[in-house]
Design goal:
The chain has 147 residues and is mainly beta. 5% of the residues lie in helices and 50% in strands. The protein has an 8-stranded antiparallel β-barrel with strand order 1-3-4-5-6-7-8-9. Strand 6 and strand 7 form a beta hairpin.
Length: 147
C-alpha cells in the first residue's frame, strides 16, 4: 500500500532537453519526459550507508507506468500484488510535477523527492524513509525506474 501511495505521488518534473558530453558513459539528459517503469527498489541504511536490500520489482508491479508529459503532468498507472496472489490495477491518476535536474529535486503533487541518479534510461529517487532494519534510524527507500 505504501508503495502504491508513493508511486501515485511519483510525478517527475519537466525541464527542456539539453545535451551533455556525448562521449560520456552516462547521458544525463535533463528531461524526464517519457514513459518510465519500475524495475527495482534499493534500501540504504540510515546509520552506515550500506545497502540493506536490492530487490527487483514484482512482475505485477512492473506493469505500472509513469508517463511524464511535457506539460508537467504525470499519468501514473499502478499495479500491485495482493495478499491473495492476484495483481490489482489501481487505475490511472493524473498529477502535476516539476523537475530540477541540477538541484536533483522532483516534486510530484507538491511533495518533494530527492533524485539520486538520472541518466537517459534510468531514474533513481528516494521514495520513502522507513526503519527497515529496526535499528531505530530511518533508512532510504530508493525507487529505480527505467525508460
Amino acid at each position: 500500500m505504501k508503495k502504491n501511495i508513493f508511486l501515485a505521488i511519483l510525478a517527475i518534473g519537466f525541464v527542456f532537453n539539453s545535451c551533455k558530453n556525448d562521449d560520456s558513459d552516462e547521458d544525463n539528459t535533463e528531461t524526464i519526459v517519457g514513459i518510465w517503469k519500475p524495475v527495482r527498489e534499493i534500501t540504504i541504511s540510515g546509520s552506515n550507508g550500506n545497502t540493506i536490500s536490492n530487490q527487483n520489482a514484482s512482475t505485477c508491479y512492473k506493469k505500472s507506468t509513469f508517463d511524464f508529459k511535457s506539460n508537467n503532468t504525470l499519468a501514473s498507472t499502478i499495479f500491485d500484488d495482493q495478499t491473495d496472489g492476484s495483481c490489482k490495477s489501481y487505475g490511472t491518476e493524473n498529477l502535476s510535477y516539476s523537475y530540477d535536474f541540477n538541484g536533483k529535486k522532483l516534486i510530484i503533487d507538491n511533495e518533494l523527492f530527492e533524485v539520486i541518479s538520472h541518466t537517459k534510461n534510468e531514474l533513481q529517487f528516494i521514495s520513502d524513509y522507513e526503519d527497515e532494519n529496526n535499528d531505530g534510524i530511518e533508512d532510504k527507500i530508493i525507487l529505480v525506474l527505467n525508460k
